[in-house]
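Summary for the steering committee. One of the milestones for this cycle was to obtain a three-dimensional model of the protein with EPZ bound, which we needed before selecting residues for the alanine scan. The sequence and ligand used are listed below.
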Amino acid sequence: MDKIKITGGVPLRGTIQISGAKNAALPLMAASLLTEDTLALSNMPYLADIVTMANLLAQHGVALNMQGDGKKTGRILSLCAADVNNLTAPYELVRTMRASVLVLGPLLARFGAGKVSLPGGCAIGTRPIDLHLKALEQMGAHIELRDGYIHAEVAGRLRGANIQFEKISVGATENILMAASLAEGVTTIGNAAREPEVCDLAHCLQMMGAKIEGIGTDTITVTGVERLHGGNYAVIANRIETGTFAAAAAITGGDVELIGARIELMQAVVEKFAEAGVAISETPRGLRVRCVDGPIHGIDIMTQAYPGFPTDMQAQMMALLSVAQGASMITETIFENRYMHVPELTRMGAKINVHGASAMVRGAPELRGAEVMATDLRASVSLVIAALAAQGETIIHRVYHLDRGYERLEEKLSGCGALIERITARAPLTLATSEAA
Ligand code: EPZ
């Protein structure tokens, strides 16, 4: 497995191109199942999770074509679900990426059936999908859980329903948005998620002919139509990647311009950075990030559903605050186990105590490089952020977690002066090789 080696202490200076948002691209790809026409998605990021979703859709029978190398303008991915010939999403794909469950709503809506592996848990929590299934049953689907699979079918078309989510769920809102677009009648989604990635999906569905009102509010109304058509749609900028690189610039005392970043997608994050002493300002091409008035100071953060502070930025901010002046209290309210980065940051000299859902972070004068292990996507990148400021050399193991959500990370950071390189693990010695040696 690949590792990443970082030698800390270099202030980041220069520009970084922000990619399209992974968490928008994944549901947008699933939406291609809703029409027999071609859906062309531009500004596509190129990440492990995107490849997994592409492989999942391809085994359903979706034709895919990726154009462009993405180094400059992002890529264009064309998807055509005219010849879907398999309604099963298999365990070996679903277990590697939970977002695979987003094919369930579209399969039911267009084909009246779907067999999708239950995703199982992951490092940050049990991640149930009960809200998705209960809402689809309200729309007329018959759902049975058997042999680790969701067996779903509906006689005729799904029917519009009044859905009131007891908890805000990004994925459940997205699955029902897609299902309701082709259902018979009107669906209202109460306590809907309002994340920019959910809005991006809703806007793309509107472009495809869906009738949706209330986008960006907690109550969305969808009037089902007979069919949707294809078209072109650009994936929004990745607000979490933007926040991640902002933390990297801040912790190294650098000055970085994030090209393509959009401040309106991340007000809560910008406010917290400002509170900690990091200035984020708009430029004609995106956002500029730099430290003003000396060192970072400690702040309190509570993660919440959008427009609150995003849980996907919690680990990155913890790394930054671990070298702040003063203490910070971080409270994670979305996932039950999203502190896997704490023991690893502690090995680098961070002073963090976790009490249930809260973590007390006492600013340390400095961090020191160490060998550390990535455990999940955002925990991994928090170790990169810490390593960029740490004295000496850090080796991060299991970086496949990083590759799921960050495109060309080493290239983007080394382009701003970071001393970072990927160490590709040699193929393990085999008997034949050792005989030859
Ligand atoms: C999406 O996951 C994102 N993933 C996550 O990003 C993000 O952390 C999360 O939303 C919250 O913003 C993608 O968009 C691909 P949820 P999702 O349903 O949809 C509970 C990353 O790092 N819940 O909003 O799975 C759930 O357990 C990833 O990029 C139920 O109880 O999240 C959690 O506690 C990590 N029942 C809370 O709701 C359900 O049926 C929010 O989950 C569904 C969710």
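Key point for the committee: The pocket of EPZ is lined by residues 23, 26, 98-99, 125, 127-132, 167, 169-172, 197, 311-312, 334-335, 377-378, 405 (CB under 6 Å).
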